[in-house]
């Protein structure tokens, strides 16, 4: 019993969920039809978008779910740290860059979640414009992405916590939103 205190808990399930978040964010349709810039920043923003949706769904579901979500979050930022190092960012700059990424995550969550909870596609599209399309606004793409996010929030809400912790996560098909009349 005592030795069990020092055993590392496997984070396979958390890693699997993080990989599903990333895989959904890398769907080519987001970069082609939704016009998300296919850049480091654009890819980061789409991962954040999907992570915010996932973490929003998991909040308030108890201690075990909170621990699971925190582990997914930790995997996310460890991956960001590793990615920065692979890109050649110096060891002394990585923590500062990760801090900026963390602030960006929380800023986006603060902008997206109230709009999602209000079911306000226009407010969500405005927030997406500020974050994903800051240099070249894409009002139609922003609105389509906002409707995708609202649908994703609803789909995540319909899935049990147990399913979301075990996977797979049932994201909506973004292809269904690429030609949405807005």
- Quickly count the helices: 8
> In one word, what is the shape?
globular
Write down the domain tally.
1
Number of strands: 0
Low-confidence stretches: 1-8
Strand content bin: under 5%
Written overview of the protein:
This protein has one domain. It contains eight helices and no strands. The protein is mainly α and 182 residues long. Helix 1 (12-25) crosses helix 3 and helix 5 (94-118) runs antiparallel to helix 6.
In short:
The chain has 182 residues and is mainly alpha-helical.
Secondary structure elements and their pairing?
Blueprint (H helix, E strand, L loop, with lengths): L11 H14 L2 H5 L7 H19 L4 H24 L7 H25 L2 H11 L7 H20 L2 H6 L16
Helix pairs in contact: 1-3, 1-4, 3-5, 3-7, 4-5, 5-6, 6-7
Supply database-style keywords:
182 residues, disordered N terminus, mainly alpha
